[in-house]
Amino acid sequence: QVQLVESGGGLVQPGGSLRLSCAASGRIFSIYRMGWYRQAPGKQRELVATITSGGYTNYADSVKGRFTISRDNAKNAAYLQMNSLKPEDTAVYYCTYYSLGSDYWGQGTQVTVSS
C-alpha cells in the first residue's frame, strides 16, 4: 500500500501562484510515476501533469507554460508549481502514484482561483 498526503491548496487571486506538494509513504518502488489530476464541480476528473521517477514529464495543454511538475526521489515527493492561475483552474487537485500495475490516489486538496 501507498499513502499520499497532499498540501498547498487554498484561495488565490487570478494571476497568482500556488505550490502543491504530495508526499508518498509505504511501499515505494524506485520506478514510478506520480502526478496530479483535478476535478472541477460538474466536470470529469482530468489529467494535469505527470512525472516519472526518471524525470519524464507530461502536461495537459491547458496548463503548459503555467504549471511545472517536479519530484524529489529521496523524499518520495512530487510538487506542482502553478503560476498565472485562472478561475478555470479552480478544482480539487488529486495526487496520484503509479508503480508495478498499482494506482493510488490522495484525498485531494482544493484550489480556488477567485477575486
Rg, Å, rounded: 13 Å
Report the mean per-residue pLDDT as an integer. 95
Measured between the Cα atoms of the first and last residue, the distance is 40 Å
How many extended strands? 11
Output the number of helix runs: 0
Model regions low in confidence, pLDDT < 50 over at least 5 residues = none
Described by strand count, sense and barrel closure, the largest sheet is: 7 strands, mixed
Structural class, from helix and strand content? mainly beta
Task: Estimate percent helicity.
Answer: under 10%
| Shape type | globular
Provide the descriptors you would attach to this structure in a database record.
115 residues, mainly beta, 7-stranded mixed beta sheet, 4-stranded antiparallel beta sheet, 11 strands
Q: What is this structure, in a nutshell?
A:
The chain is mainly β and 115 residues long. The chain has strands spanning 2-7, 10-12, 18-26, 33-39, 46-52, 57-59, 67-72, 77-82, 91-99, 102-105, 109-113.
